[in-house]
Amino acid sequence: MAPQNVNQDDFQPSELGYGAGALSGTYDAIDPSWPEAACREALRSGINVFDTSPYYGRSEYILGEALDALREEFPRSTYYLQTKVGRYGYTTKDMDYSAERIRASVAESMKRLRTDYLDVVLAHDVEFVPFEKVVGPGYVLEALFDLKKQGKLKYVGISGYPLPVMLKIAEHQHAKGQPLDVILSYCHYSLQNTKFAEYAPKFRAAGVRYVMSASPLAMALFRDAGPPAWHPAHAELRAAAAQAALVAKNAGFNISELASKFAFSGRDTFNLQSTVIGLENKDDVKKAIEAWQSVKRRQRGEEQVPENEVKVLEEIHALLAPYKDYSWESPTAKERA
After folding, report:
1. What are phi and psi of 131, to 5 degrees?
2. Among 102, 159, 189, 272, who pairs with 184 as Cys (CB 3.0-4.6 Å)?
3. Is 195 strand, coil or helix?
């Protein structure tokens, strides 16, 4: 696909977004050659939005270096950069939503990402701080909207896990006449939890223009290797997910592929702008693109869902039924400092 400039006046992210948190090594060790090849494959395949954060280890540095190496084929005008502010470590003590820190953080991110502007900046994990430190004077949203006026960034939003917390913030901003541009929810449209479908219309009613989902694999819960040790899911859900992966494997399927297709198939149901999925290497990109394209073919009636896939999904849903729409605590006890 030939590179094309993205719309600078209206955020039009690709249906698949590149989750660059996966480049941090949080899930697996990353070979130094992977990021540039993965980003090239993504851009050539039509992915135009990259999501990262200072909290994701060296993700911003790695992504910035990879995209800079591709600048001749894909200049800055051909993609969107989305990063976050406010969370700089594992615990609530590592949160800093003060306006001063937010302004510095945006400048630091631009330097790491080798750009003089950011497309989207999100207040990271809004549930980790009191409500007033999100919406109050001298804090994160006020600072971000000021930076938007200055042209340092184009769209302001929030990210987090508990949907009721995020909705409260969105409704507050709407009531004050300064609605959020973007919402990024994670792990709430997956094989195990589809609560985002219920909340997306509520966010739109609160004036949010762009509604995005992340972690269709529920932070690696649905993969053959299983989730990392730090994953907040309880032991019973982990065991059910492991059993689901085994059921898929025994039937000749890959649980990550099934989970991706399930998540991608829901985007049209609630008019979702983009699904951000973590991608470590070129092969990950190819698999994600193929899963997305398969879903699109099925929606157009050009591809039938195999009968054995339907049966496997029924068995997986039965295994996960006791934990359907369960949301784990956030912040967790370990994260509360």
Report:
1. -50, -45
2. 159
3. coil
In a domain? residue 54:
yes
Catalytic residue among 18, 27, 56, 80: 56
Which residue in 161, 166, 163 sits closest to 141, CA to CA? Answer: 166
DSSP state of 215: -
CA 119 to chain centre: 15
First-to-last alpha carbon distance for the chain, in angstroms, is 48
CATH at residue 90 = 3.20.20.100
* Domain count for the chain: 1
Maximum Cα–Cα distance across the chain: 57
152-181: per-residue pLDDT in tens? 999 999 999 999 999 999 999 999 999 999
One-letter amino acid identity for 61? Answer: Y
DSSP 90: S
Counted residue by residue, the chain has a size of 337
Q: Assess contact for 263 and 216: CB atoms under 8 A.
A: yes
**Neighbour-count burial of 327, counting CB atoms closer than 10 A to its CB (0-12 exposed, 13-18 middle, 19+ buried):** middle
pLDDT tens per residue across span 197-215: 999 999 999 999 999 999 9
Q: Is 56 a catalytic residue?
A: yes
Which residues contact residue 149 at a Cβ distance below 8 angstroms, ignoring those fewer than 6 apart?
none
